[in-house]
Specification:
Layout: H1 4-12, H2 14-44, H3 50-62, H4 65-75, H5 87-111, H6 115-123, H7 128-157, H8 173-182, H9 186-205
Helix pairs in contact: 1-9, 2-3, 2-5, 2-7, 3-5, 5-7, 6-7, 7-9, 8-9
Length: about 210
């Protein structure tokens, strides 16, 4: 038994661990809030193009991660939208790749809430914003946190799209794990997997 593998991983992969956790922590609330807003519009509002919005939000699930990764490289490489090599291109891919899960989780919860509860509050003089914050939001809170948990885990463990988007400045833990296995450092890869599991479980606990 030895801790040399841990020492090696934290020397070589500390930046990747920090970068991955940071990008997942930023992408998770953004994807959850966008999903919540889209779910509220789809489940509660009537407007032209509602079905198209629902289809558009679900589209990332229908596309392979490889296609999304290559698409982001092509889209965000030329000026003026040059984001290649930055953390933002990975965060944006995380947000829109996981948006459908956050949307469906919130939408399913919203559809279970009777509209008459919100209508009663509106009839008593509450504004739409107050109804949403004080009545709707507390009722769908479990669904929001479930969606956030899934988004965070998926951001931490993403491979297919992110492998095209990482750079020397912003690397991802899963890419580093693959790199370690390619050079036959299986012990280091196992330590990285353990660190990944600990980070995810810590996020669940929080």
């Amino acid at each position: 038994l030895s801790l040399e593998n841990f020492e090696y991983v934290f020397n070589v992969g500390w930046d990747s661990i920090k970068d991955t956790t940071f990008m997942a922590a930023v992408a998770t609330p953004v994807a959850s809030i966008l999903g919540l807003v889209a779910a509220f519009l789809i489940a509660r509002k009537v407007f032209w193009g509602k079905r198209f919005l629902d289809l558009l939000a679900m589209l990332p699930l229908a596309l392979p991660g490889t296609a999304i990764g290559i698409g982001y490289v092509l889209a965000f490489n030329p000026e003026p939208f040059r984001l290649s090599g930055t953390a933002w291109i990975i965060i944006i891919s995380f947000v829109f790749r996981n948006l459908p899960v956050a949307l469906e989780s919130a939408k399913a919860s919203l559809l279970q809430i009777d509209k008459s509860i919100e209508e009663a509050a509106t009839n008593l003089g509450a504004s739409s914003l107050r109804v949403f914050i004080e009545i709707t939001l507390p009722l769908i809170k479990p669904a929001i946190f479930t969606g956030m948990a899934y988004v965070f885990v998926h951001c931490m463990t993403a491979v297919s799209a992110v492998i095209f988007l990482t750079s020397a400045s912003w690397n991802h833990m899963t890419v580093l794990i693959l790199n370690q296995t390619e050079i036959l450092r299986f012990s280091a890869a196992a330590v990285l997997c353990l660190v990944l599991i600990v980070i995810v479980l810590t996020a669940f606990a929080i």
